[in-house]
Design a protein that fits this description.
With 914 residues, the chain is α+β, with helices and mostly antiparallel strands. It contains 29 helices and 29 strands. The protein has a 7-stranded mixed sheet with strand order 21-22-23-24-26-25-29, sandwiched between helices. Strands 1, 2, 3, 4, 5 and 6 form a 6-stranded antiparallel sheet that branches. Strands 7, 8, 9, 10, 11 and 12 form a 6-stranded antiparallel sheet that branches.
């Protein structure tokens, strides 16, 4: 049958060719792309498809029988697009395509296109290509008495690969092709062994069941079972009753033969070789996945050669055959009455039920048998299967979650049928049950299969693999209760969790506002306990500041598995969600990288709306973030949004040194002061230096606290100074030492700070330090006697005083880079002008850092706020006189003498503020 897409490709090639394409080449292209689909063809890809086919043809020009030719090449298919072509030429065998695809998936390669023509190939004595024709069932091409070989031409189009990826992928593809060769070469040997076993079982004839076992083994050979491996094991029990297993290497066939030559332990692949007292056949699973035919654990049938024979108590031995492979896919749709062994089990169950044949219950029971997973019917004994079927019959159409757990007789895996109401089934629930089973059963892996029918219940068939045979004892009834709790309707789960946590009245009140607030995506991703934590986080917050919609931030760890713990940050907002473009720069400046983000809109029943932004995070270096810094991360993020902290690289000290946002503001204050007295290093470099030396930064913070924290009394700062000196000897560069020594000089020259003067138990959003400027080496001259420096995210300012008694105005400066230089110049001029009134002068100036771009009134309002902050900061550090006595500021350690004199007046830009 002609393929219209192939015809379009040939016409496009003919039009695009600069010279006519010879007929043999066109014939090859037609044969090669005879099954080309419309989604794989577009006129713009005509040349690419032609080049890909000819590349494959060139690859096939010389090939020995049995040789696997594999080529992986990156090719450009457009200006900004490239792909990798995986081209293979090999003998045609069953299982090739699905096995190769499994391997590509194992390497994480996305498959975009597959071409797989099958050719009859004639080669000469030196294996060179003579002719090829597409294989057709009705035609065989001959050439000079040579019978053609059937060769598979396989080409996959995948994403581009690196050189290292290409080498490892090629090795993996060749290995799986070798395995396919071994399996298919041994196919007849494995079938013959199964025939032999069928005859052996028939000869034993120890009851009607043996005729069914015989029929089953013959049924398997009739294309109802894909044979992948076979072996025989001799099992002995010595006088100490120690079981010893020895694989007969002469019996190895298929994949087991390949594994044996690869030095793998065959017994690690086989299931535990237990002995059955009721049957010579045991249906179970292997302990290893394969990459042939299906990426799954192999079905395994164990056949005891010595079943029913008498044994001595002193010593016994037996031989066990192990058939490995997969039940044919068609088995799932076969009537159970047509499958030997299963039909006898079904007959037993229907008979034991004593149900009338034409009754509804009888038909329902037959339907249960027909729809149960076939492998489960094979594995369960008749009595266990009867019990399961009758339980399922009794639960029919009841809207209730039920769990049926069974451990295989070999003890290395569990099967678990979970029935949940169809209207509450979703991927999130399936994942939660999956994770719970994996944890409770101690499984290394859990696979699943979901079955939908007309029933109100959805069935999930889980298989949990425990290859180490260390599965804990599990109470099936308790497990069912646990999964029933998980499978509750999410709103019901929230109500139950509320009632469990709170007094009844509070639970009802909270539910009335929140029970229907959470969207489906939130319910899919979170438990009811998560929701309660989010509710508490939101309800305990006051309204946000004028500058931010953010209510709160919460940092926490989530243990995905015993081996994997991830770090997360949740942001709670009102009025509007926090845009990613706002949140990501804040986290980036904190040294945090976002791996994933999920926003949730929460609509409360009282018409209030909240937003939750959930981030999975790591440090920019890829390292985990210590939970010890949780509160600092939360508060720093919130303080940036509220305008109490600047959004800059200093915030990395939150996770590098464990600093709070207000401790970081102290460091910003000192660095900004150093910049004003002309330290030659840029702020970005200073920040990098601090991040590289967190111990030194912590030592400076300890020095600051030792000198000025009133709660520490007369603390001795010598220990902190000694530690700083020791750490300075370890810095890597001279620049780093200069930066820290400059900081140390200003720290040491500081006499007072308002940092520990809390307002309502909270740190102020501005920092003021009083400095004895003349103690700072290399400070620009003339150096004032006293200097107060004020820092906040909104304002920076300085007040210079050249004597204990001095006067001067405060001005609004428009020079943010060098306002101290401006003030210093003015105070020098003032000393001459006011020498008669006051011998020495003073001057202050501030800059408003967040001036609005709106109207003049808004600008004026912001400048007044900054002026008020500046005045407040000066007064925080100034002694008062009450009743003729000096009254120091509260919570202010003074390392200088009394200093109650502060005379300020209006100046440029502030005349109307007083």
């Amino acid at each position: 049958m002609k393929n219209s897409v192939t015809d379009r490709l040939i016409r496009a090639l003919s039009r695009a060719a600069q010279k006519p394409i010879d007929s043999d080449t066109l014939d090859f292209i037609k044969e090669y792309y005879h099954r080309l689909s419309g989604q794989d063809f577009s006129p713009s890809r005509t040349q690419h498809l032609f080049d890909a086919a000819m590349r494959h043809f060139d690859l096939a020009k010389r090939r020995r029988p049995g040789q696997h030719i594999v080529d992986i090449s990156n090719v450009d298919i457009g200006e900004d697009e490239s792909v990798a072509l995986v081209s293979i030429v090999t003998d045609d065998r069953p299982f090739i395509i699905d096995s190769l695809v499994i391997t590509l998936n194992k390497f994480g390669k996305r498959l975009d296109r597959t071409i797989h023509p099958l050719f009859e190939v004639i080669r000469d004595n030196r294996h060179k290509l003579v002719s090829l024709h597409r294989y057709r069932t009705d035609t065989i091409h001959h050439h000079q008495d040579k019978h053609p070989l059937l060769e598979s031409f396989i080409q996959f189009e995948i994403d581009p690969v690196s050189q290292d990826e290409s080498a490892s992928l090629k090795k993996g593809l060749i290995k799986v092709l070798d395995h396919v060769d071994t399996v298919t070469s041994d196919w007849e040997a494995m079938r013959s062994a199964t025939y032999f076993l069928a005859d052996m079982v028939e000869r034993k004839q120890q009851g009607p069941a043996f005729a069914e076992y015989h029929a089953l083994l013959r049924w398997m050979v009739e294309d109802n079972f894909a044979f992948i491996g076979y072996c025989e094991v001799d099992q002995t029990l010595d006088s100490k009753r120690t079981v010893k297993n020895k694989v007969d290497p002469r019996s190895l066939s298929g994949i087991l033969r390949a594994y044996y030559h690869e030095k793998l332990n065959i017994l690690d692949i086989l299931p535990p070789l237990v002995e059955s007292k009721t049957s010579p056949l045991i249906f179970t699973k292997a302990r290893k996945r394969v990459q042939i035919h299906r990426a799954n654990y192999l079905d395994c049938i164990l056949i005891d050669h010595n079943y029913g024979e008498s044994k001595t108590t002193a010593k016994r031995s037996r031989r066990v055959s192990c058939i490995l492979g997969f039940l044919a896919g068609s088995t799932a749709t076969m009537a159970i009455s047509s499958i030997p062994h299963l039909r006898s089990k079904a007959a037993y169950i229907l008979s034991e039920s004593t149900l009338r044949k034409r009754s509804y219950a009888y038909k329902a029971l037959r339907n249960i048998l027909e729809t149960l997973p076939r492998e489960m019917i094979f594995q369960l004994g008749s009595k266990a299967l009867y019990s399961l079927c009758m339980t399922l019959l009794n639960q029919q159409e009841r809207r209730r979650t039920r769990v049926h757990l069974n451990q295989n007789v070999c003890k290395h895996f569990f099967t678990c049928l979970v029935y949940v109401p169809r209207d509450i089934f979703n991927t999130g629930l399936r994942r939660r049950i999956h994770d719970h089973l994996k944890h409770r059963l101690g499984a290394s892996e859990v696979t699943f299969n979901v079955y939908f029918s007309d029933s109100i219940l959805t069935r999930i068939h889980f298989t949990a693999y425990c290859p180490k045979l260390d599965a804990p004892e599990v109470d099936g009834g308790q497990l069912e209760l646990e999964i029933q709790d998980m499978a509750q309707d999410w709103g019901d789960q929230l109500a139950a969790a509320m009632i469990k946590k709170y007094p009844l009245d509070r639970a009802r009140e909270t539910l009335s506002r929140w029970q229907h607030s959470f969207p489906p995506r939130y319910q899919l991703d979170h438990t009811a306990e998560d929701a309660i934590q989010d509710i508490e986080e939101i309800e305990q917050q006051i309204q946000p500041s004028e500058d931010s919609n953010l209510l709160a931030a919460r940092f926490f760890l989530h243990q995905k598995s015993p081996e994997l713990t991830t770090t997360h940050l949740r942001l709670y907002s009102t009025r509007a969600a926090m845009p990613l473009s706002d949140a990501l720069p804040i986290l980036d400046h904190m040294g945090i990288r976002v791996l994933g983000e999920h926003p949730y809109r929460i609509n409360c029943d009282d018409d209030t709306t909240y937003w939750i932004n959930h981030f999975e995070i790591v440090r920019n270096t890829g390292e985990d973030i210590s939970p010890d810094f949780a509160e600092h991360i939360e508060q720093t993020f919130k303080s940036v949004c509220a305008g109490f902290s600047e959004n800059d690289g200093f915030n990395q000290l939150t996770i590098v040194a464990g600093f709070s946002w207000h401790q970081i503001n102290v460091l910003r204050c000192y660095v900004r002061y150093l910049r004003q007295i002309r330290l030659r290093y840029g702020e970005a470099y200073i920040v990098e230096t601090m991040v590289r030396n967190p111990l030194l930064v912590q030592a400076l913070a300890e020095l600051f606290a030792a000198r000025f924290d009133p709660a520490r009394g007369e603390s001795d700062a010598s220990g902190a100074l000694e530690q700083i000196e020791q750490l300075l000897e370890q810095v890597q560069t001279l620049d780093e030492e200069r930066i820290f020594r400059a900081l140390l000089d200003v720290f040491s020259a500081t006499k007072r700070t308002n940092y520990f003067q809390l307002e309502n138990g909270e740190f102020k959003h501005y920092v003021a330090i009083k400095i004895s400027s003349r103690e700072i080496p290399r400070i620009p001259e003339p150096a004032p006697r006293h200097e107060i420096f004020v820092y906040s995210p909104r304002i920076e300012g300085v007040h210079l005083r050249f004597g204990d008694v001095a006067r001067g105005g405060l001005r609004w400066s428009d020079r943010p880079e060098d306002y101290r230089t401006e003030v210093l110049g003015l105070v020098k001029a003032q000393q001459v002008k006011n020498a008669v009134i006051v011998p020495v002068g003073s001057k202050g100036g501030f800059v408003a850092k967040k001036l609005p771009t709106a109207d003049r009134d808004a600008i004026q309002s912001e400048v007044i706020r900054c002026y008020q902050t500046f005045i407040s900061a000066l007064l925080d550090l100034t002694d008062n006189i009450s009743g003729g006595k000096i009254v120091p500021p509260k919570n202010c350690v003074r390392l200088d003498g009394d200093d109650p004199y502060l005379v300020v007046a209006a100046d440029k830009g502030t005349a109307t503020f007083s």
